[in-house]
Amino acid sequence: ESKQYISKRNIMISPETVCEFIGTASLVFTIQSASSELAPIAIGFVLVALVFAGGPVSGAHYNPAVSLAAFMRGAMTLSDLGSYWISQVVGGATGAILGGIVSGSYSTVASGDEVTPFQAQLAEVCLTFVLCYTVLNVATVPKVENNHYYGLSIGLVVLSGAISVGPISGGAFNPAVALGLSIASRFEGLYYALCVSVSNLIGGAVSAVCFKIVSKNILSEPETVVLGESAPLNT
Amino acid sequence: ESKQYISKRNIMISPETVCEFIGTASLVFTIQSASSELAPIAIGFVLVALVFAGGPVSGAHYNPAVSLAAFMRGAMTLSDLGSYWISQVVGGATGAILGGIVSGSYSTVASGDEVTPFQAQLAEVCLTFVLCYTVLNVATVPKVENNHYYGLSIGLVVLSGAISVGPISGGAFNPAVALGLSIASRFEGLYYALCVSVSNLIGGAVSAVCFKIVSKNILSEPETVVLGESAPLNT
Amino acid sequence: ESKQYISKRNIMISPETVCEFIGTASLVFTIQSASSELAPIAIGFVLVALVFAGGPVSGAHYNPAVSLAAFMRGAMTLSDLGSYWISQVVGGATGAILGGIVSGSYSTVASGDEVTPFQAQLAEVCLTFVLCYTVLNVATVPKVENNHYYGLSIGLVVLSGAISVGPISGGAFNPAVALGLSIASRFEGLYYALCVSVSNLIGGAVSAVCFKIVSKNILSEPETVVLGESAPLNT
Amino acid sequence: ESKQYISKRNIMISPETVCEFIGTASLVFTIQSASSELAPIAIGFVLVALVFAGGPVSGAHYNPAVSLAAFMRGAMTLSDLGSYWISQVVGGATGAILGGIVSGSYSTVASGDEVTPFQAQLAEVCLTFVLCYTVLNVATVPKVENNHYYGLSIGLVVLSGAISVGPISGGAFNPAVALGLSIASRFEGLYYALCVSVSNLIGGAVSAVCFKIVSKNILSEPETVVLGESAPLNT
Predict the structure, then answer these.
(1) Contact in structure between C173 and C124 (CB atoms under 8 Å)
(2) Quick one: which of A33, D104, D124, D204 could link to A99 by a disulfide (CB 3.0–4.6 Å)?
(3) Residue C112 DSSP class
(4) 3-state class of C153 per DSSP?
């Protein structure tokens, strides 16, 4: 029983969860400390590096919505999903606090002026969809296993989204970013962070559904595709 | 007969066309919603990610001019060309509408002040040429099959062109972008979008001709090249 | 004799020289038409794409200084050097003219205000050195043959240099750029373009010397390196 | 004995140390000469190119903190560490002098207004940690040996950090940058440069410790990981 307990404790501080913690902390540290007009570039590019760094260890999700999409695609277990989510949110809060100490200011994810809640949440759903759709296609397809561009692709979506819809929704695309920043600023903006988190998870879930349609053939390449016998959109 | 009908319907909603739809929609969503000075970077970089994501499924054209060049190079059939074009334009319009809802404004492709129609269309021809020439060289040459830079190369041409000639022609380089944005704004600027589309297709066609000259040797590498027996430019 | 003549003519319009022409023209077209503050990014990134596109065909030099360095490194013949130089300068002039038509203005390479000629030329020597040193290391070393980052590395040096010393020297790092822009603007600034060209060739030549020192071991990896028997810097 | 002497002298001017010298000089030359708002992009991207260029020769550290992390990870010997450090600092000073001549101004690393020494040094520790953590994960793990993204990942961390905490700490993340710039400006800001250097080395050392935890499984992949028998964080 005691051994069992230690075992569970080890799952929580396994290389995978430490990797998720460090990666998410480093990402949110960058988001918290970057204040120039080039901030989206800083955020996206550090994510490129962190995904390549942690990919072989934990898959380098650093994002509960990405982990949800990976889980729905069958690329991770439910218990791993739980420990990943915890590592990511704790990492996000840690990075937000460290970034706040360094920069002397604590920011939160917030929507732009004259942006309706619907617009903001739709922006978060859409961009998180693009992010998770990209992750599933570049990082979970055997046909392109061991490619050398998965980290670049993933980071660039966040970079792009931070420029395009960042001024609209705040540009989290990641519950660990939204919640981490909120926790670090003593739960300021927590309601918005929770809304954003739900939108991100919805975007991730939709991406897993679309991925199934799109990857139908490349996931079963040896099989002969018989036209007319299956309606992809009904799967 | 019924089976035949279902079969055709399936072609329209095959993984390939869904992939083209999602990719083009995501690209045009970014174009519609990005309004900062870094917009060209957002547009080009999301294209990098989307090309890597969809490449193994559909070739990740997301652009009727690219599909035309691929067709002329012998890399896709005429019937595929048709379904790709439809998916791309429908995807472009969908992305433009979603982006318009999110950002609250609908933009169209338009030329800069004091730019003549000739200058604008020449800019579109030239840049679409560079784009399609790049696509054919990095994505249809057996010698560099399975390279890990095709998506980066393709997205970077669009990023570059959006900076260089974007202020001149509007920077579409893609009929699905020009038409999609026009459709979403209730056919505003449709004439200009059609002109741009023709210019894009011309650029794509010219690139296929130049590609034949340039790739003459690398497409037939095992053969011995005998100087003086063929005039490449006359092929 | 007639056949011989055709043969020579074919060398001039071989796939390699057409590839150099198209690539250099596309690069200088971008330089000529880009006018925003993001111009260095447009220039460097289109070069990334063009180098990946043309690399398998011609080596994708697009730059007489790069070709000189490649020649000194033993990677191309003297007669090829000649035809490459011609293709590059003609391509540069063509791109500059097209870019001038499209943008309605013709620029030339020029040094910044309050910059001495010595500072400007030293900047051109240093940056062309970094460029050619990078080319030789990423594109002519058997140990890293078939790598997927050579085009990225090469384009990023130009992007970087255009930001760092562009305001000092004009940021050509390439005689085909300096001369092409001068030719297109009816030989305006030709003297400066010639000085820059000489500086670029010097930078390229110095890079070939440094490359020999640095690559001493990786070019002869099977051999055992005996310390104390050779003084690398005296080679 | 004489031979022994020559041998040692050769170690100092080996391909590896010349490579570190050229790379660090080129990096600091860029830092010294870049003055536009895009300077972080110039600095990070030239580092991408230089890391890819010198990687096969010397590992392309160009940074005493990276070399320390590599040493602690067991990837280089103590005597190599010494000669690398000397090459890097001498290279940094050389690049800073050349860059100063070219740009006509000599800058040093300095913290932002209203930034406390603690904030500045913490920023340097954190970013150098992310940098070295990335280096160890992408460049010293057999599982991802011969990957084609290590240079990109490393350069992008510096690019990101120069944007995010550059305005806070000055953004060195590298003792050779801090000391090289100080030496070139006649030891101005030497005290701050020394503080930064210590912070950078601390960040590098911490990264080596974290790397051990995170890479525990991927470094010993053939072994079966038995849960409950080891506590990773106590290693």
Answers:
(1) yes
(2) A33
(3) P
(4) helix
CA gap D195, D199 in Å, rounded:
6
Helical pair B150-164 and B117-139, crossing angle rounded to 10 deg: 170
Interface contact flag, B114 C104, Cβ < 8 Å: yes
Q: Considering only CB atoms, which chain D residues are within 8 Å of C38?
A: 38
Q: How many CA atoms lie within 13 A of D10 on its CB side?
A: 17
Query: What is the CB neighbour count within 10 angstroms for residue C72?
Result: 20
* Separation of alpha carbons D148 and B148, rounded Å: 9
What angle in degrees, to the nearest 10, is found between the helix axes of C78-103 and B117-139?
A: 140
Q: Which of B52, B106, B144, B154 should one mutate to test binding to chain A, selecting the residue with the greatest count of A CBs within 10 A? A: B52
**pLDDT tens, A133-144?**
999 999 999 999
Burial class (CB in 10 A: 0-12, 13-18, 19+), B190: middle
* Cα angle value C22/C23/C24 (rounded, 5°): 95
Residue D147 zone, left/alpha/beta (φ > 0; ψ -120 to 50; rest)? beta
Chains touching D, CB cut-off 8 Å, 3+ pairs: A, C
Give the separation between CA A139 and CA A211, rounded to whole angstroms.
Answer: 12
List, as one string, the DSSP characters of B63-126: SHHHHHHHHHTTSS-HHHHHHHHHHHHHHHHHHHHHHHHHHS------PPTT--HHHHHHHHHH
- Interface pTM, i.e. ipTM: 0.91
By Cβ distance, the residue of C119, C144, C157 closest to D102 is C119
Q: Which chain C residue is nearest to residue B163, measuring alpha carbons? A: C42
Could you tell me if D47 lies within 8 Å of chain A, comparing CB atoms? no
pTM of the model: 0.91
B138 touching C, CB under 8 A?
Answer: yes
| C164 interface with D at CB cutoff 8 Å | yes
pLDDT of A8 > 60? The answer is no
Burial classification of residue D127, based on how many CB atoms lie within 10 Å of its CB (0-12 exposed, 13-18 middle, 19 or more buried): buried
Residue D114 has pLDDT above 80, yes or no: yes
- Counting Cα atoms < 13 Å in the Cβ hemisphere of D138 gives 33
Question: E strand or H helix at C229, and its extent?
Answer: none
What DSSP designation does B140 have?
S
Alpha helices in chain A (DSSP H): 2-12, 15-33, 39-58, 64-72, 78-103, 117-139, 150-164, 166-169, 175-184, 190-214, 216-219
Set of chain D residues whose Cβ sits within 8 Å of the Cβ of C133:
22, 26, 53
In sign, the C-alpha dihedral spanning D15, D17, D22, D27 is positive
Whole-number Å distance between alpha carbons of C64 and C57 = 17
Residue pLDDT, tens place only, A53-66? 999 999 999 999 99
Say how far apart CA A133 and CA A138 lie, in whole Å.
9
Q: Note whether C81 contacts D: Cβ–Cβ < 8 A.
A: no
Pairs of CB atoms within 8 A across A/D: 146
DSSP D192: H
pLDDT tens-digit series, residues A78-115: 999 999 999 999 999 999 999 999 999 999 999 999 99
Contacts of C38 (CB under 8 A, 6+ apart): B37, B38, B40, B41, B163, D38
Which amino acid belongs to residue B72?
M
Mutate to test the interface with B, among A66, A124, A137 (most CBs of B within 10 A): A137
